[in-house]
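Entries read sequence, tokenised fold; example below:

***
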Amino acid sequence: MFLATGALYTRGITGKTTDVLQVVEIAAPLNAGNEAAMRAIAADALASAGLEEPSGKARVRKTGQSFAFELTGSRRDVTVEPTADPKAAKVTIKEASLHRVFVQLHKAKGATAFKVYASILATALFLLVATGLLIGLKTPPLRRATILGSVAGLVLFGGMVASA
């Protein structure tokens, strides 16, 4: 999954979302400092649509004078923004396609259990490479090829990073 989504992501293939926009009435104007109120608006909109809250993190994104509350996850994202009417808020619910769900998981936007799984997988892959390198260095017929391959890989990686 990580290999496929990473390779496709570098080509700009990130999956699709289906956006549902709602304008909801609110009791008081939105305030960028009141994250709890915006989270409650998002929760109400999700409940009225019969959807669960996203499994990822929440944050208030500020851009100049505007702001938006974002609640992200692997399956859906919810955004709450003020409108020109101080008694209304714009709520956008984005439902992810299957490919987009995998991309979101790749970007660590899933639940804690998946983040733990991904960390264990990353550690296992590192240990696989490290033990392979050690075996190659300790085996006399493979030592020269291991050193040359490792140096060539590091030089190639360094060149790619420098040209990025």
